[in-house]
Amino acid sequence: xxxxxxxxxxxxxxxxxxxxRVYLNRAQFLKAMGLxxxxxxxxxxxxxxxxxxxxxxxxxxxxVSTYNNFYEFGTEKDLPAKRASTLxxxxxxxxxxxxxxxxxxxxxxxLIKKFPAEERIYxxxxxxxxxxxxxxxxxxxxxxxxxxxxxxxxxxxxxxTLMDPKQMPGxxxxxxxxxxxxxxxxxxxxxxxxxxxHGMYGKPLPNQNGAPLRLTVPWKYGFKSIKxxxxxxxxxxxxxxxxxxxxxxxxxxxxNVNPSVDHPRWSQKKExxxxxxxxxxxxxxxxxxxxxxxxxxxxxxxxxx
Length: 305
Description:
Elements: H1 26-33, H2 37-40, H3 61-64, H4 79-83, E1 93-98, E2 104-107, H5 108-114, E3 118-125, E4 130-140, H6 141-147, E5 156-161, E6 181-185, H7 186-189, E7 195-200, E8 203-204, E9 214-216, E10 229-235, H8 242-246, E11 270-273, E12 279-281, H9 289-292
Parallel strand pairs: 1-10, 4-11
Antiparallel strand pairs: 1-2, 3-4, 4-7, 5-6, 5-10, 7-8, 7-9, 11-12
């Protein structure tokens, strides 16, 4: 979820939000969404509850699928859903390379079949101070990276979005330096919370949400969860990232959710959950502090923001 320069968290009003739906329990929710082997090469049973799930109410699908940051289709949040039909998510390949012994070009269908799907309900926090709770379908990134056998010199992972202005008309503009790129430290990429996602709400991932394959890193601000991934590369040094290049004083490489580090133009201490009227306190690491704080032990998180 890339950042829009002129949007402010106060812009969401009561008339903007979809009425909140209450999902009584996980089994009922998945059954209603028709989770089955047909659409996503999943087992013909309901997926087991993940130990990483949040118990918070899921944000309505209609809102998550129509209110998006995806600058490749426009800077207004309603434009990706209106324009993303130009994206062709099949056929699709993902190249794994860089500092590794077994580089490979994967077909997305082969990836989905190779790595068993999991469903995880994650919080997400966007830098503009809005947040969502989404049931994602995908698999941990770690097994894919380990299969490539990274070299000892590999310390980071760089990721890249598709570069094709015909499919992604926003890439004809100069709002960002295209293609969109992101990066993680290798230990962050190998963390069990980090996922490659190919579906949500029991359905294949919509184009506007990053089809056919996107990163999901729930303890970081949303723009770190790069969409429509075509390349993953191991690097020795910290790779450039799209928003850090565009505005380094506003967007650091790490971009961990941290209520004590404000954006230069607004506070990050509170957030508004889409579908709700009132703000809530922003949680350190977006509520995943117990799982990920150890990654940053001894680091100055004000400096390494």
